[in-house]
Amino acid sequence: MFIDTAVIYCKAGDGGNGRVSFRREKYVARGGPDGGDGGNGGNIYFQADSSINTLLNFHYSRHFRAGNGENGGKSNMTGKNGKDVVIKVPRGTIIKDFETQNIIADIFNEGEKVLILKGGKGGRGNARFCTPTRRAPAFAENGETTVERKFLLELKTIADVGLVGYPNAGKSTLLSVISAAKPKIASYPFTTLSPNLGTVNYYDQSFIVADIPGLIEGAADGVGLGHSFLRHVERVRLIVHLVDISGGGEGRKPWEDYKVIREELKKYSKDLYNLPEIVAVNKIDILEDRAVIEEFIKRTKITPVEISAATTQGVKELTDKIAQKLKELPPVEPLVFTPYEYEEEDKQSFFIEKRGDTYYVDGGFIRELAKKVYLDDTESFVYFQRKMRERGIIDELRKMGAKDGDTVCVIDVEFTLVD
Ligand SMILES: Nc1nc2c(ncn2[C@@H]2O[C@H](COP(=O)(O)OP(=O)(O)OP(=O)(O)O)[C@@H](O)[C@H]2O)c(=O)[nH]1
Ligand SMILES: [Mg+2]
């Protein structure tokens, strides 16, 4: 079974809570606060692994959770960070937000770890809230909690060469003689049901060839295996179009086969249709009349490379030609897109908590703003307050019962609420 899409659920770890604790030592009458910070939650990463080439695994396990950060301890002990989770996927896996279908990442480079969900930050322990005027803070921060996200994974294989052609043309046979791949080969159409990848080592160069199921007339409308697997040759640099010179033993005309496949490629995507192409005619070992090749040339205006994948005649010339052409072509690039960021969405968030008589304001919006504004400077602080008002934070404080003269604490800075 070939699986090239999957829906999975991931959750980064929550941050551990900060601790409230006071030093207790012999002969020390009143120890200061010594509650440690909570550890950070684990992250979720995706990593490309070229030893995998389907998304099948995700049909068995669909839930991934990174470890939570541990709570802070006494004696300023910071909690342990939660364990990261690294999810291995084939090269060319595109990760989308399930709800919006927006692209989050294209897992393109072999081995590269891409951060997809960040763990929650650990909360600060009470030791961190000690100020000259507040010697014994009896509170600590909670760790940041994270949300479970639903992703759609789509595989768009990355290869240098895509092998296309009629069923039974000998595509898999060709792949098996130019690479170490061992695809299924048989004398009936639609032997290949899912893409096979093979690496061709050519002197100091190497390239990846994708062999896909055969196409027939009407594939775009779902005839045969349809053409959805063409997504696996959308990201190639070069198409090698293999034509069965024996007409499939069914009296088909090779030049017609060629045109039919070109039509199907065009229907699937103009980009695919416009890719550089090398045409090869296969099975010349059983060619009885060279007139067939002459007619092919006349009708298509293309002089094909003549090969026999079965006897390997002409295969070396074809490989030379492919390698030469690839040298001239630019490398495959990752998709161009603006990555969708959950954090962007969260950057507008804020929350208010009342502890004792103090209102604590925090959240993505505040943190973002605090990065830009130096809070200890009066003028900047006025700006900060204005932004808070615009975002509706002051209104929310009032709704919660905050009155003039009440203390509001924004991250580390305390101020008195006035209109
Ligand atoms: N005589 C001859 N037979 C060949 C040659 N190449 C492949 N064949 C035979 O053609 C048949 C089809 O070969 P495959 O490699 O499975 O063809 P395919 O294009 O991958 O077919 P699908 O996967 O069904 O699309 C097999 O019986 C092969 O042995 C060749 O050069 N000469
Ligand atoms: Mg095949």
List keywords for this structure.
18 strands, binds guanosine-5'-triphosphate, Rossmann fold, binds magnesium ion, 419 residues, single chain, alpha/beta, 5-stranded mixed sheet, 6-stranded mixed sheet, GMP Synthetase, Chain A, domain 3
Overall 3D shape: elongated
Low-confidence stretches: none
Kindly name the structural category: alpha/beta
Instruction: Tell me the count of domains.
Output: 3
Mean pLDDT score: 89
Written as H for each helix and E for each strand, in order along the chain, the element string is EEEEEEEEEHEEEHHEHEHHEEHHHEE
Number of helices: 9
Could you name the CATH topology of the largest domain?
Rossmann fold
CATH architecture designation of the largest domain: 3-Layer(aba) Sandwich
The neighbouring-strand order within the major sheet is 10-11-9-12-13-14
Number of extended strands: 18
Ligands, ions, cofactors: guanosine-5'-triphosphate, magnesium ion
- Highest-level CATH class of the largest domain: Alpha Beta
* Percentage of residues in helical conformation: 10-25%
Rg result? 31 Å
- Give the DSSP E fraction (strand runs of 2 or more residues): 15-25%
What summary fits the major beta sheet? Answer: 6 strands, mixed
The CATH superfamily label of the largest domain reads: P-loop containing nucleotide triphosphate hydrolases
First-to-last CA distance? 66 Å
Topology record:
Blueprint: E1 5-11, E2 44-48, E3 63-65, E4 85-89, E5 93-97, E6 103-107, E7 113-117, E8 149-155, E9 161-165, H1 171-178, E10 196-202, E11 205-211, E12 238-244, H2 254-268, H3 270-273, E13 277-282, H4 291-300, E14 305-306, H5 315-328, H6 342-346, E15 351-355, E16 358-362, H7 364-372, H8 378-391, H9 393-399, E17 407-410, E18 413-416
Guanosine-5'-triphosphate (GTP) binds at residues 165, 167-173, 185-187, 189-192, 213-214, 282-283, 285-286, 308-310.
